[in-house]
Amino acid sequence: MLSKFAPRTFRVQMALLFGALSMLVGLPTYLYINSQHRAQLIEHKRETLQGVAHSTATILAESLAERYREIILLTQSPQFKQSPLYPPEVRASIERVKQSYAHYSWIGVADVRGRVLSASSAHLEGADVAQRPWFQEGLKAPFIGDVHEAVLLAKLLPNPSPDQPLRFIDFSAPIRNQAGNVIGVLGAHAQWQWAGNLLATITPAHATRDGIDLFILNGNGEIIYPETVPDTLHVPDLQAWANNPRHAFLDWGQDERFLTTYAQVHTPELSKPLDWRVVVRQVEPAVLAEVKNLQHINILTMVLAGIAFLLLAWVAANRISRPVEALTHIARRIESGEKKVRFIDTFWAQELQRLSDALRSMSNTLIAQKDALARSNQDLEAKVSARTAELQQLNIKLEQLARTDALTNLPNRMRTNERLSEEFALFKRSHLPYSILMLDVDFFKRVNDTYGHAAGDTVLKHVAIILQSTVRQTDFVGRTGGEEFLAILPLTDVSAAMQVAEKIRNTIASTPIAPVGNVTISIGVQEVQADDTDADTAVTRADEWLYQAKAAGRNKVMSEISI
């Protein structure tokens, strides 16, 4: 009885051989699959967290930019360009802006000496803010301040979270009169609570369950959101991690490690940038939970497969040993490329006979498939060439679409910036002049509010058609955003450009469009100068003339020769 299980028997040797092979193949395969799946899962999780970080940073930056632009636009209102800065119109404008955004806690106007002249709800009127950073920086240029506490203002405002101090973020900008001189500073304090509201809209629904945390860091690497964090939490060196991202899990001074990513918050161009970062992390066990499940499934599958494999090897070993050798020899000859192989006519087992017949058929099929494969490869190469040509055409169309405004079919901001750079480069080489027209539809918000956005779109397309039909074929017209357009007039000095601009203004003003009726447009004109450092210099001056045209009552063309 024992002789049947002796190691020298074919059955035992076959079973042991197949068992060893299954282990040699299965174990590395298991380790490889586990390693690859772990790496891919971590990378997928990291990309997901990176997406959350980028989305959060983008929303945060857009909200900051919106408040930043709101304050700047308010300083450019006509009532702010006159002195003194405390007529009722100034107070009314301040109150309207404060009501437009729930997180504005205070908006005020201070003169150049730092005395608050007008403020929302009359808070801090008469107070001296000369030493406040928002006032000092706001005298120089538009400013966004970092998160801070405001003791005086906090005493005047209700605190929704009494256990935590009120914290604010500052926005300020200089107020200039018609001559361009600074006559005061407009400042606004927004409650830092708005950051929590913003992050609540983008935080994944199951963030707490999945161990996901979001933080906002200031330029010093300090956590400014959330308001409170455990004392044991220490922010890791993100810069060192960025230089060596293979170490995906970082130590935060707590019991667990965390998969960590971050994204920079790109604020408007400031003299003192905020340098904020949004950091997103997920606890390591939550990241690797799926890996553990896969490990259990793989182990169970390998064990069951190994047992079944050994049983089949044990049963089949004696039955197939000798005939298999003969068939193996035939198969080797087929493998070597022989096309005429003589098969054994009969076998003692029907299964082996069918195997022999199948091998014969396979030999014939392989020869036929080899010939068919050669022909198929030729057809495939032809199809690949055709698909490549089609893809190139589609890429060309996509390139065109990426540089065209979908509403007006004019070049968009990307294409406009490219054309400005091309024209400026040509100017630097040839010194041939060109002029810039900055155009803005007057009272466009009123059109949207009165007639709806569909009518506003119709007005923009109407203006775009007139612009295209009024300028020369060599001129360039693009839509730079909203109701703003930019025209480039090559080989045109400021005097000729004023004539073109006046023709555009008159044509638009005298061409009504249903249901709005007549619309008007304000235009700023500027010729490129020899000392301009880049293409944007002339655009900035043209934009300033556009604001002058708006301030002069709209439906105007303004330039240096119109003064």
Give structural notes.
- The chain is an alpha+beta fold.
- It has three domains: 15-287, PAS domain (Beta-Lactamase), CATH 3.30.450; 321-402; 413-558, 2-Layer Sandwich (Alpha-Beta Plaits), CATH 3.30.70.
- The chain is built from 14 helices and 16 strands.
- It has helices spanning 10-75, 88-100, 133-138, 151-154, 193-202, 238-243, 284-287, 289-335, 350-402, 413-430, 444-451, 453-470, 494-509, 535-551; strands at 104-111, 116-119, 143-144, 148-149, 167-176, 182-191, 212-217, 223-225, 249-251, 257-264, 277-283, 434-441, 476-481, 484-490, 521-527, 557-558.
- The strands form three sheets. Strands 1, 2, 3, 4, 5 and 6 form a six-stranded antiparallel β-sheet that branches. Strands 8-7-11-10-9 form a five-stranded antiparallel β-sheet. Strands 13-14-12-15-16 form a five-stranded mixed β-sheet, with helices on both faces.
- A hairpin with a 5-residue loop joins strand 9 (249-251) and strand 10 (257-264).
- The longest helix has 66 residues, at 10-75.
